[in-house]
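ugh ok fine here u go
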Amino acid sequence: MKDKEMEIRKDGRHPLRGVLLFLLTLAAVLAVVVFAAYRDGTGFDVLRRYFSYGTQDSAGGSAVYNYDAASSNRFAVLGEKLVVLSDTSLSLLDAQGGQVWSRNVKMGAPALHCGGGRAVAYDVGGTELYVIDEKGNLLTIEDSKGEPPLISATLNEAGWLAVTSDLGNCKGCVSVYNKELEPVFLFKSSRRFVTDAYVSDDCTRLAAVTLGQEESVFVSNIVLYDLTKEDPVADYDIADGLVAAIGQDGDTLVTLCDTRLTLAGLDGRVRAEYPFGGACLREYALEGDGFTALLLNRYSSGSVGRLVTVGADGRELGSLDVNEEILNISASGRYLAVLYATRLVIYNADLQAYASLSGTDYARQVLVRSDGSALLVSSESAKLFLP
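structure:
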């Protein structure tokens, strides 16, 4: 009888009642999230953001990343951390503003590329290269007298690295490193200049961008190599343009030049093209899941144009007429962040507005994450925005 009396609190409530109310509330919240996720795929991202960052007031009320201002600064996100590269330093910052890892560098033209939870920082035309993950340095190539000047470096979704460099006794070479950053393949070109390369996300192919001349016209060609063989297995031309970027979306290779978007399979067959129709390419983002974002202006200067998203089949998923200045765009997962002069808008792949924030005139760059959160980057700090 005494034990039974102890089960009842002095205020007359059963001790399990509060627990049951909490569980019922949690179940209701989860039901709403699951319904939203089923409907448009964004509900789970809401839950991810809540458990990762809490509320907007606690996460984005003040600057969460601070760094030295420099005109050469380059930025990238690794999970909840921010990579900052300048001509003199490479740093990894956490969401509390602390410095996780840092290294002094000396770069004339710093560049950054992300993939597979890693970032590669390198000096275009120099010899310094660093690969870092969320903990710090993994691989370093620096000031090596025998190293050829670097042209580009890319990481695929599995963390494999392709380094394109200018080798003296040929017209370019590509070194491929596996996830353990061990060299596994070397491609040297004797006929055409090599400008870029990408390892397929299944780590079986190398797509090398070569540049040649046919009938006094420069032509880009994509050469595909099986990483277990010496000779190429396929190639295809990029009509009427010079390739500026290469990546992958699903099983489709995506190449972007100044006149068109070209989509091809790993077998070297062109599946679709999206020509720009004489419009000028101002901004692009290849990192979206199932789409590529393009800002196409009517003229080489000014702000009149169109923002479009293109699917892997070459068809437009969405299109918006633009009559105001766009400073920067960024894509990740199902989201596209567009930084206008005084506001930020986060869109879905079909360019339906998902969230917005006004009063962003302090920012000059935006970095969106796969959960829909975004970092607004200014000259000395970056603030987190939670939709």
